[in-house]
Amino acid sequence: MSVALPLLLGVPAAGAALLAAVPMSERRAKVLGVLASGATLVVVLVLTVGFDFGAASRLQDGVDVRWLPAIDVRFHLGVDGISLPLVILTALLTLLCAIYTVGSVPEAGRVRQLLALVLLLEVGVLGTFVAADLIVFFVFFEIVLIPMYFLIAAWGGPGRRPAATKFILFTLLGSALMLVGFLVIYAGAGTFDMTALAHAHGRGIGAAPQLFAFVLLLIGFGIKSPMWPLHTWLPDAHTEAPTVGSVLLAGVLLKMGTYGLVRIAVADVPDGARRAAPALGILAVVGVVYAAFACLALVRSGDLKRLIAFSSVGHMGFVLLGIATLTPVGIQGALIGNVAHGVITGLLFFLVGGMKDRFHTSEIEELGGGLLAKVPVLGGLTLFAAIASLGLPGLAGFWGEMLAMLGAWSPAAALSRPLFIVLMAVAGAGTILTAVYFLAMLRRVDFGVVTARWREAPIPDAVAADLVAWVPLTVLALSIGVWPRLVLGVSDAAVRGLLR
Amino acid sequence: MRLIQSIDYAAIAPPVALGLTAVVVLVADLFLPPARRALATVISLAGSLVALGFAAWLPTQDARHTLCFPGGACSYAADHFTAFFQLLFLGALVVVLLLSLTSVAEESLPTGEFHFLLLSSVTGMLVLAASRDLLSLLVALEVVSLPAFVLVGLRRGDPRGSEAALKFFLFSVVSTGLTVYGMALVYGVTGTLQVDGIAAALAPVHAAGGAKSSLAAAAVVLVVVGFAFKVSAVPFHFWAPDTYQGAPVPVAAFLSTASKAAGFAGMLVLLLEAFRPYADVWGPVIAVLAALTMTVGNLVALRQWHIVRLLAWSTVAQAGYMLVPLGIATTAGGRGAAELHTAVQATLAYLGIYVVMNLGAFACVAAVVRHSPRAGVEDFRGLARRSPVLAVCFALFLTALAGLPPGVAGLFAKLVILRAAVHGHVAWLAVIAAANAVIGLAYYLRVAALLFDLSSDSAAAPAVSGPLVARRSRTVWAAVAVTALGTVALSVDPQLLLHAASTAAASLRHSVAP
């Protein structure tokens, strides 16, 4: 048994407990937050260095302890090529959030509690990604909700209460259905162990229960991802959440949905997946187009945070389309799309948070134009992030969309090829619309002249703590774009093992 | 028939010890000066712990049967099933006693009577869990209920208390009447009062069909109704919210846990031992009751703004979850011994976890609420500011009741329930239960979130006025600590309880086997 995974969960948990229990000055809390999340990232890096990339399809550094023998639940953890990139992303984004908090504290204050919740969130997300037992997965999946709820409800904007309630009710409904789905799988296969289930490829589970389980899991993970039409909680939650909440929500929380879909739904009930894949593909593409139109409407007069939230729905639509193809290429696209979206949208939310701190609004109309002239660094980074987000080749966002559409061009043998080619064409149109609204957004906010309202106001540009938080994401967006093997190389073997 | 029975006093030691303690407390109270009234609690606690010791010792021995009839059938069984419930009742009693010390003093309840009634009621429960014939069950059930009526109305001069007691009494009497009627019909059909004998006699009646079988089916349903009242299953739940609200908080805690568990003890003995051949009749009835109880309980709880009423409706809903596994007897496939064993194990495990977490929730309420009829949910806003430890404990109990981490014990409870339902091929009931779990989350989390609402508007709220005070009573804190530790222990190692539930369920099954 390796100590890496217990440390991975233990370090942020200890940090969260310390922050929650011990009264301390704001300064000290910030230092502790950065130290704890930094130490977690160090553990992740050690884990990565020790990871056997030659055997990426095998679960490594496992922990396996009896927990509830009566129903065969084991405390089973491990990482493989699919989870490792997400683990790194989570640890990195949490550290960046802690660093960002050093520079800009939300209006509601109480930094100590805020950082404790962020670290608790990290424990939940990391636990979800390394869980190798369905019940352990569920427990960590649920733990994430508590800090996220409080992040929105206590540090959010004016409409935070309803937004937090909507967030928690939607995701809890999904979780409950997901749990029933797990039980259906358990009833057929007789185990909760994810490696055994993935190995069995649905053996022992009848055709009807497989479809039933897949639909339940699809709703559960679809709410989290989010998949159209189950996305309605997301724009509100994003709009109201504080900056670090938005970053973590987009950057890592949504990934839990698509990760679960690949890791559990597709792998454990493949028959059900085959039968439901056309529906998933259609919903995914509708999401892409719907999000594009919503953003086109928002770019005329709307909230920038809301616009980015809707663009998330579109990006996750591509990820879901990739999964729906049930091909290695498509799922690879989904995984790299996942990571790219986490990096780019995380960066975008940081930047909008930066604008909100300075201009005290994120309404496109009120911001006016000329961001690039007024605050060149912030404006320049916004330009970069928006371009990366619209999927310019050479930047990270491109690969996910490209591979998803490539997967749709030749979907798995059991799926209808004409349908998926139509889906590919519609998704392609979606990419054009995405480019249109992002460029329109840039034209309205970034370019042009500074409006009279802000011309005289002293608005500071990015400070050091901001840059420390933002630049790594910029670098990452560029390096994944230039060298996609950074992600694809790690997950390739694992994905092939999953689909076999 | 021989009129003198030999009695195995070791087997009946727990109820005897507790019954004697009840009498001692009542008499001692007459001679105690008012300043030393706390001694009554000490005596009661000591008696409960002695009974607890006996109850814990018995399952280490072979199963004992006593008060036997010629022919082998016995009225009193001290097996693992009995031990499971007796330990549950006595554990709950200890927590309730810890809770009531302050309450009895502050609300000037008559000390001796309070303890006497409480201990008598639990003595009835100890007998109820061990009874294996209809008459013993009936008498034990009445011994449980009669003191409870008085306990509810013990607050003198409070019209709410009297109303609560009267409602409780009327509902109880009617449902007991139905139970007695059902039992009489069962006796008429089978000619015996022993549960084993009834099962043996009902099997051919059910196989033969006809009018006699319909009569037996009606009798089974009538008996189920009587116990449905006791566990406050919808539509026999109307008494619960008013009664809990009108009663002193420790009494409400007692009714919602020990008393409900007693209802389940009787129900399980009757359904699974006596009425096993009629599983196809009571199975669907229980399934429908379970679905109704969960749904109504949760939906009404959503609209409650009084903390005790909210918890009262939550206990109604929780009873629904506990009934779910028994509902698997609907389908032909679900009647196998293995599935039923899993189902009973699930109900017992849920019951055990529920008693711990619900007692904890009521203990937290008792820790802050001086006078229950006025305590709104809103009064708990920002409790974390005044007492962080209490707020964390209360949140733990609420999330456990909701079935959500960090209250992992509650999640496991829900899990075994859902698993039993899915295993028994009653997926629709599992889906309803899962949907209800979501509705439940809404109101549990609303309260849990209020506790941590530290926004500025709550800072202005008066901290010590109104019905709320942060009590510094050591006994109440002890009750909170005991239940919190129990919840954490069951979260880390739920196998402890599941194993006990499994052996308890197994001993029920074996007493039916020829």
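qc> The CA atoms of residues 83 and 333 of chain B lie 30 Å apart.
qc> done
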